[in-house]
Design a protein that fits this description.
By secondary structure, the chain is α/β, with parallel strands linked by helices. It has 3 domains: 3-55 and 494-557, Roll (Urease, subunit C, domain 1), CATH 2.30.40; 58-305 and 413-483, Alpha-Beta Barrel (TIM Barrel); 321-409, no CATH class. The strands form 6 sheets. Strands 1, 2, 3, 4, 5, 18, 23, 24 and 25 form a 9-stranded mixed β-sheet that branches. A 6-stranded parallel β-sheet has the order 9-10-11-12-13-17, sandwiched between helices. The longest helix has 17 residues, at 170-186. The two termini are 20 Å apart. 52% of the residues are buried.
Length: 579
């Protein structure tokens, strides 16, 4: 019996951290059947001479819930070697819902996850209601493997109707618990939620999960205890220091579920002191005392921000700004032209701890109006000084001249040797896991979806922060082991044939550029990669020499079928796929 695919002549890095070996890989029926010198014929042979052959990369924090409905390739992730993604994070999912809750969920996603509203309205038909119906719509139509958590805010809006800006009754909590259970029985990988003050809905109000009590969150988390192969995801707060109540809450959620909880996001910048990092990581230490396990997701790259007043994301973290930016476009224009409103917003920004309100750091990256062409590339403070105007007045004047399309850039602080070493230390801390790309969301703000090729490329090759074998382990085996993804994250006989073939001397991300290719001509930041020769999912080629094929071999990952249970404190190992 011949092989379906033979990958020959490459240097195999199996994902476990072991050193590379020169070997061939034989694939049949979506599984790896041989590693070594092949003596069987193959329907297709891939020449990997001089290339690295590694497990497909795993992105554990995405928001592809909407995009998957019009783009089963989940671009640009596969161009960066990603073969498995987890969506449904932060409490925001597209199921379960009703005809009544669907419009609210659409507007919530547009606001909190930075997805163009018209794109969502054109790209989603809402031909489903239950979580199972949603998963069935995806099955057979994806290039990469995708699993989804069920989101608290979506469930809370369904269970409480329009009156959700309050604590839930016992009966309503019971209803939400039933919805969580039904979703997991249909295949949801777990439960996600948020208390972060950065999460506001289409009206500028806190999203539904932010009105939940600690008791509600703990009860909903406890549902997972009865279901194998599940986990929790939570955003506790947006500020640097973790209050004790958030640390204790995550510990109790994890202990109640008897499952791992991951939170987003541990960032490293020069202005974030070590005590703030220690405060956040202490959540893991406290969780162990409760019998739980809490881990932080941390990005292995610089993460500059691109902001605008059209969507208002992150500018709306202060209530005064949120009240203005949540309004319809024309009303926003009127308010931002009002001197009194401007003074109020400037005062709120001056009292805020958040860095993007600091005009000495925020820059004009993209300005459309010829009237203000000279300010592009300058900080707002410097441009305002040149024009002898107040910085906030200039910010608003330029944005209004561009019909709120001006792109403001806040560069990532921390591209220095000391901060890179702090990041590396965290990557190897058992209290963390590489992740937090937000791929599929914040489409005009973030381009962190490509961190994989930056890590195995520039961070290994140029920054020399770690070995290639160690880098690959962080984004394959470690991710699969933490979340119990069966048969993925490792190249071994019997395991799923999710494989990346790349040139370690060339791999890296291409320049980030805007692209208007979403439904309704929506815009997103986008880049692909160099050096990625082949990407295979379940034994089928989905990327060949930088080009996407028409293959859609991805599996919709369902809890307990494609995942195994990881309990707090248990050894993290990858287990073979179920037969």
């Amino acid at each position: 019996m011949s092989l379906d695919v033979a990958i020959v002549g490459g240097e195999v890095v199996d994902g476990t951290g072991s050193g590379r070996v020169r070997a061939d890989i034989g694939i049949r029926n979506g599984r790896i059947v041989s590693i070594g010198k092949l003596d069987e014929p193959a329907a297709r042979q891939i020449d990997a001479e001089g290339k690295v052959v590694a497990p497909g990369f795993i992105d554990v924090h995405t928001h592809y819930d909407a995009q998957v409905m019009w783009d089963g390739a989940l671009s640009p992730s596969p161009f960066h070697g990603v073969t498995t993604v987890v969506a449904g994070n932060c409490g925001f999912t597209l199921a379960p819902l009703s005809k009544d809750s669907a419009p609210y969920v659409t507007e919530m996603l547009a606001r909190v996850e930075g997805m163009p509203l018209e794109t969502l309205r054109e790209g989603l038909d809402f031909g489903w209601q239950t979580f199972g119906q949603y998963l069935d719509r995806i099955e057979g139509n994806v290039a990469v493997n995708i699993g989804l958590l069920v989101g608290h805010s979506t469930i809370r809006r369904l269970a409480l109707g329009e009156d959700w800006r309050r604590a839930a009754s016992d009966e309503e909590v019971a209803s939400m618990k039933q919805l969580v259970a039904q979703s997991i029985e249909a295949g949801a990988l777990g439960f996600s939620s948020t208390w972060s003050e950065s999460h506001n809905d289409g009206n500028g109000d806190p999203v539904p999960s932010r009105f939940a009590t600690a008791e509600e969150l703990i009860e909903l988390s406890a549902v997972l205890r009865d279901y194998p192969g599940t986990w929790l995801e939570f955003l506790p707060i947006a500020t640097q220091m973790f209050p004790e109540d958030r640390i204790g809450l995550m510990a109790e959620m994890s202990a109640a579920a008897n499952r791992l909880l991951n939170w987003n996001l541990l960032l490293f910048r020069r202005d974030i002191p070590d005590e703030a990092i220690a405060s956040r990581l202490s959540a893991s230490d406290v969780a162990r005392e409760f019998g739980g396990e809490v881990i932080a997701l941390t990005l292995p790259i610089l993460a500059p921000l691109r902001l605008n007043l059209g969507t208002g994301m992150l500018f709306d973290i202060e209530p005064a700004w949120a009240a203005v930016l949540a309004q319809p476009h024309d009303q926003k224009i009127r308010d931002l032209s009002d001197p009194d409103v401007r003074k109020r917003l400037a005062a709120a920004a001056g009292e805020s701890p958040h860095r993007w309100y600091r005009m000495h750091g925020l820059q004009f990256e993209h300005v459309e109006s010829p009237q203000f062409a000279d300010v592009q590339g300058m900080t707002i403070a410097a441009a305002a000084a040149n024009r002898d105007v107040e910085p906030f007045d200039l910010l608003f004047d330029v944005a209004l001249a561009d019909d709120l399309r001006t792109v403001f850039f806040y560069p990532s602080d921390g591209d220095d040797p000391e901060t890179w070493q702090r990041r590396v230390a965290a990557w190897h801390d058992p209290r963390t896991l590489i992740g937090g790309s937000d791929a599929g969301a914040h489409l005009d703000m973030l381009a962190t979806f490509g961190y994989f090729t930056d890590l195995i490329g520039p961070s290994v090759r140029e920054r020399k922060l770690l070995s290639l074998e160690a880098a690959i382990k962080l984004i394959t085996y470690d991710a699969a082991a933490a979340f119990g993804l069966r048969g993925r994250g490792q190249l071994d006989i019997g395991y799923c044939a999710d494989v990346v073939v790349f040139d370690e001397n060339e791999v890296g991300g291409l320049p980030v550029e805007p692209r208007e290719d979403l439904p309704a001509n929506g815009m997103r930041l986008y880049n692909e990669a160099t050096g990625i020769d082949y990407v295979l999912v379940n034994g089928e080629v989905i990327i060949e020499h930088g080009e996407l094929t028409n293959a859609r071999p991805g599996t919709v990952l369902r809890s307990g079928v494609h995942t195994t249970t990881v309990t707090p404190g248990s050894p993290r190992t990858v287990v073979p796929p179920a037969d």
